[in-house]
Amino acid sequence: MLRDLRKYAAQTHTRLIVGGVALLLVVGLGLVALLYGVPAALMGLLCILGMLVPIALVGLVMLLLDVIVKKSRGE
After folding, report:
1. pLDDT digit string (tens) for 9-24?
2. Widest CA span of the chain, in angstroms?
């Protein structure tokens, strides 16, 4: 049985990123809410979302570049 290691690696990276973001949101905001209250946790959520916007934009640009390169190669 053959395995597609590139697909497996991409799937693993995606799972790690989603898990890290979920951990940040649940544990981080949970601790902030526990120690400082819900309004502080909502402000923390706003800050986290503000941080994720530029990261998502860079990811989208990289994905677009990947699509362009694959199209120019004829893949």
Report:
1. 999 999 999 999 999 9
2. 55
